[in-house]
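Chain A, query sequence.
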Amino acid sequence: MSHCENTTIEKYYCKNCNFQTELSTIFKQHLETHLTKKQTLSHEEYSVRNYVCGKCTFETHSCINLLQHSIHCWSSTEKKGSVRYSCHQCEHKYKDLHSLRKHTILKHLNTNEIMWHHCTKCPYKAKLKTYLKFHMSCQHSNENDIKWHECQKCPFKAKQSSNLRKHVNAYHLDEREVKWYECEKCPYKAKLSSNLRKHAAAQHLGAKKNPKQKVHTTWYKCKKCPFKVKYKSSLKRHINAHHLDENEVTWYECKHCPYKAKQSSNLKNHINSHHLKEEDVKWYKCESCPFKAKHKSSVNRHVSVQHVDEKDVVWYECRQCPYKAKRVSYLKNHVRIRHLDDHDAKWYGCDQCPYKAKEKAYLKKHINAHHFNKK
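Chain A, predicted structure.
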């Protein structure tokens, strides 16, 4: 929290093992596991400096208790939206304490400090009660019991009103009505804050303001191949696209042609590229040249490659050769094509001849060049 800069987060470290925590009650319970029945625990063995509120005399050993106290203390003395609350452990800032508390629980609490919310119907568990409610609504509700939130401009519908708002903001608002989230390090901007965070993690993780600052990345690794990614949702998409049997895949089928896709986003891109009338296409234009594209991601790639000054470029360098790229996706493709062993690569085989390729795009080019419209 801002105005409480005089309090630094101190952890409790066990002298008998590697255990550590920020909560005194949890730490005291842990220490008791090392004691014999005749031993007692003195206060000095687990005391650290208190967290002190910057507005009143309140102090506590627990950062969570301080957050809970501050919600009431600060709300009574500050105007809403006038304060930005800073996380003590990273650079994130929030307009309200509820968001800061949510961030602290999700990002900075150890597993044994979290009060898990368990699903009664499957092994799923969540760090926040709202996440559990969302899970129950999506996974365990009967179709007839679901209250769908429908878009008034297209067939889209969602189980959560927040998802409908995101959809409307992403697809149906005029450019001047959109609240853009802009990247501080490149021309990228997004309609959703989550997309901006993903962009920053993927493209600028190595370009830190403070070179000494340690950036922790949690990688989600595929159990069936060397693939790893920073987001759990991306890992799920990877598994669905590459490792599920055909009968296990949920296909998204085009109503206009035989095309089908494993991801709804790919189907949307297909319809936008092949079945929309020219006057119905929403073009995304480059502000620096005549380039335009049907997909905003294509414009973002174009801008990062063509219009960013050399001194501002964050280069992604190959560890095995002099190759370097302006986008991490280009480097990944390079490594997969040039340096991955044949037995580790995922091959895309032609069903009409022995041709195979490491890139699906190359297979499509081959089919269009050699087999398209051939009987």
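The mean pLDDT is 75. The longest strand covers residues 12-13.
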